[in-house]
Design goal:
It is built from eight helices and eleven strands. The chain is α/β, with parallel strands linked by helices. The chain folds into two domains: about 120 residues, Response regulator (Rossmann fold, 3-Layer(aba) Sandwich), CATH 3.40.50.2300; about 100 residues, Orthogonal Bundle (Arc Repressor Mutant, subunit A). The strands form three sheets. A five-stranded parallel β-sheet has the order 2-1-3-4-5, with helices on both faces. The chain is elongated and about 60 Å long. The N and C termini lie far apart (about 50 Å).
């Protein structure tokens, strides 16, 4: 079985890799979120182990980003030094399967890995159809319909629109959107995000007359809300 390990501390990563390889796992190691996201589109993993704090992105943002890209999502364990209850709640609610606080022993980590693989084996299929009023997103076919009519979106418009709709009412900063949707904040200009959002507002009818408000919040980001 193949595991993706995302951890920016090389010395600690080498210890984890040794533990996992000794237990019979094949391990791909990544130091940054961007490197992992680039490989994820070409590789299938049976499980992912994520650190929280990375040089370029936060682990939870990496998790959200792969959820936009995959129909079948591998189980995810967060193995991190962040032990606050609100942090654990945040990633579990966002889709993580388990959370292990550093430092943890070899037997404990391997027990959690094996238990998670048993629990999710041949059972984990993510939803492929998401419905928001008259909007339907088919993540398998990458098709969007509005009132039954197909709306043609680019790949990034699709990911961005789905992320907004799944986070209704949440203020999303431009930097966060660049990390999650593009997977690289340094390669995308803020203006490009604004242009994509403008296209989405028009194509998906995210306007008050159609029951939505996609609002720009000065120097903070965007928020999508129902226009009740």
């Amino acid at each position: 079985m193949k595991i993706a390990l995302l951890e920016d501390d090389l010395a600690f990563a080498e210890i984890l890799i040794e533990w996992l390889q000794d237990a019979g796992f094949d391990v791909d190691y990544f130091e940054t979120g961007i490197d992992f996201l680039r490989q994820f589109s070409h590789e299938q993993y049976d499980l992912c182990i994520f650190d929280w704090v990375l040089p370029d992105m936060e682990g939870p943002d990496v998790m959200v980003s792969i959820k936009l890209r995959a129909n079948k999502l591998p189980p995810i364990i967060f193995f991190t030094g962040r032990a606050e209850e609100q942090d654990i709640i945040r990633v579990i609610e966002a889709g993580a399967d388990d959370y292990v606080v550093k430092p943890a022993s070899r037997p404990l980590l391997l027990a959690r890995v094996n238990a998670l693989l048993r629990r999710t084996s041949n059972q984990r299929l993510d939803e492929t159809i998401y419905t928001f009023g008259e909007l339907n997103f088919d993540t398998k076919l990458r098709i969007v319909t509005l009132s039954g009519e197909e709306v043609r979106l680019t790949d990034k418009e699709f990911d961005l629109g789905l992320y907004f709709l799944k986070n209704e009412g949440v203020l999303l900063s431009r930097v966060h959107l660049m990390n999650v949707v593009w997977g690289a904040s340094s390669e995308v200009e803020t203006r490009k995000v604004d242009v994509h959002i403008s296209h989405l507002r028009s194509k998906l009818k995210l306007t008050p007359e159609y029951g939505w408000k996609l609002t720009s919040i000065y120097q903070q980001g965007y928020r999508l809300e129902r226009n009740r």
